[in-house]
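Step 1: inspect the first sequence and its tokens.
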Amino acid sequence: MTMDNNTPAPQPLAPTPDYSAFLQQKLATQPHNVMSHVLGHEQIWVKRAGAPHGMGRYRAMAVLAGLLRLPVLAPVPNPGGPVAIATEVRRLQDLAARGVRVPEVLAVRDNGFAMRHLGRVGEEAHSLGNAIDRTLRANDPAAVLSLWQQGLDALTHVHRQGTCLSQAFARNMVRDPSGAVVCIDFEDDPAAVLPLPLCHVRDALCYAHSTALYLQESGRWPEARARWAAWVAQGSAEMQAHLAVSIRRMGWMQYLPASRRLGRDLQRVRAAYDLLVS
């Protein structure tokens, strides 16, 4: 076959970056444990193992969970160090294999790993929590509800794949340039210490705690509560039973004051309880 003189010659493919060598270099030289770098035409995050964590606070949490008779609050240890890196890599790869949107792992070593940036080069990828907060400040209650529903739909997808998140707060859900929700932060594995239905309840509690106050302040509270009730109803029977028991044992939260003067943290807890009992 001959080529026309006006036909441009095929361009050679760009070589695949050596992510492993890049990771090794950055792990040895970057001043912080988590940093972003530009390699060629892409942005990459390198996460290096930090110091191992003490277990004292987890023992205290276990005692509290026992006293409150709330197994869903049982601690999920994050030992830190190389173990946390191995856990996060394993969870990211497992979730990706199940069709859950998570950062792409590019290279792995014992003391760290590299993953692809979720946004465009040089642009921050904003969390779902930040996006909801911005729309609330812009006085766009319909957008608040829509964004919140995105996170709820992401949880539905994760649970239907037979798995769970680690800490399902809205800050750990990031919107990529297409607007899709990508889940991050997997240094611990709840399913290693809790039955899966309890892990799903744990996800629900985390998401409610991090978003309910936005819903109250948006003025779309009745619709949000209806959507929450519908979401719970489509969960497994075991998840619904564990959630119902947990809510009953958290009944004391209904007596928490909702006054802004007492701080946002207390308001978040009270708003979350009001959503949970929908």
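Step 2: inspect the second sequence and its tokens, then contrast the two.
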Amino acid sequence: MFEYIKGVLQYKSAAYCVIDVGGVGFKVYVSLNTMSRIGNVGETVTLYTYMSVREDDISLFGFASREELSMYLMVISVSGVGPKVGIAIVATLDPSSFSLAVATGDYKKISQTKGVGPKLAQRIVLELKDKVAKELNSQNVEEQAANDLQTVSGMSASHEAISALMVLGYSSAEASKAVNKVYKEGMTLEEIVKSALKHAF
């Protein structure tokens, strides 16, 4: 419903903040990562938002970047992951770390989140990796990546980087173009993903 909220930050706590938009105070749940980045009380802030609507509750969740929001939407699409668990994962892992964990099958990194056990972490990796794999197959991104990245010697790392970016909601074409733009010989998977998120979008 809301793409983002922009207004004056009126209040901050460990779990949520209040943003004044035209005299209306919006209570927005945020992660500690987001809280540390949005600024101080009295300043104008912008948060990208997701509204959770249930029979007994309507809650607004806010994120400092579109990547964080995309990561959150991916996480809560997994069966068994609710809005509060999703925000806990965003608080524990930044988008690049999360996407790398999914792309490489590192469920132990995700299970570091409070309230996320090994079984749920494995389900998150499995379901999101399957989603990306299906999109990779349907769009033949491997062939596209091979054409786009002809000069890249680390093809395996590049392909995994494309998968990691797709976990954050980017299309195969966008991810492939971003990796091609930032890749330099000898870069690790983590360096490729972080550089792409910082410079290519």
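Step 3: confirm your contrast with the notes below.
The chain has three domains: 4-63, 70-128, 137-199. The CA atoms of residues 61 and 200 lie 26 Å apart.
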